[in-house]
Amino acid sequence: MKKTWSALAASAVVATSLVVLAPAAEAAPQACATAEIRTGYRGPGTVVNKSSTSTCNDLNLTASYENSAATSDLYAGFYRNSSGTWIRGSRGYIRAYDGGHSPWIVLLSDVNNGVPMSVGSYNTGNDIADVAH
User: Fold this and answer.
1) Which end of the chain is more exposed for a tag (fewer CB within 10 A), N or C?
2) Per-residue buried b or exposed e for 36-46, using 16+ beta carbons within 10 Å of the residue's own CB
């Protein structure tokens, strides 16, 4: 019986040591710049530039409010390439209902610092879009 208790006590000490030495499971959340913009009708609206101080590599829709009696719209991310042409992101239009979005809706991925970006809505323009970038 003494050996069993000694073994259990030793196991508890080892387990406690491992827990104390284990690194945190998750890194801190990404620091993203935020903005409230107006959507364009099936094209870019208000423009934001990818923040150089942000570690967030996406254009994320964090909240949206449709500009009509409807309670949702379809939203797409747009970015301007080096030639000055606006390009719709590969995810296309994604339905979002009025209100906050958790998790965020990723409209563009891996955007470089300084790149102009925007959001377009499919059914009406001039919707409010809160974005993190």
Assistant:
1) N
2) ebebbebebbb
